Amino acid sequence: MTAPPRAPGERHGATNHAFVQDVFRVWARSYDTAMWQWTIFRPAYRALLRSVASRAVRPAEVLDLSCGTGEFTRMLAAEATSARVVGLDLSADMVRRARDKGLRVVQGDALALPFGDALFDLVTSCYAMHYYQDLHRAFGEVRRVLRPGGRFAFVNIDAGLLDVGPLRFALARFVTGQRLHLRGTREVEVALTRGGFEIVRRDMLHPFAGVWVAVVRESVP
Q: Can you state the angle between helices 71-79 and 42-53, rounded to 10 degrees?
């Protein structure tokens, strides 16, 4: 399933590798026990899982993109028992934590996926797009590895909802410090459409948290 490794230093305009490695080297130690895991991540995981499980077609090959320590990957594998589920993350430390849970996880870049074409029925991602410098490239890679008619289901932070009132200044400082790329709903929708996807469902998890779930499928002529 995995393509030959890319040449050292071949980044394809990807997320800042050194930054991600440094940040998640520290976060990996407490990632599964941190407060946000229970207050933010797990409710989103459950909503995303419900959204995926509600579709009639059961996937056989699943990729969990930017899977971190593999918590959602684990939930996916437990739900889709007949599917082969693999996770991918850029951080070596997060990948190591996920593998310690017995999960199949590959270290790699979401903007240059180390997989061949048309391998997966379903690609998922949770709270990761703000780390992607090039959203169009990320969606292009997802489409490339999906089989015709495959689905892409993800959770994303809506920058437009967060950028209001007293949050604006704090958010600007946080984004600058963390090198994030927050996008509004419209920007994500346009990128999906241009990338050849059709949005079939979107749900707000919490109007104040500015988080939304979208389930999309590749447009098939």
A: 30
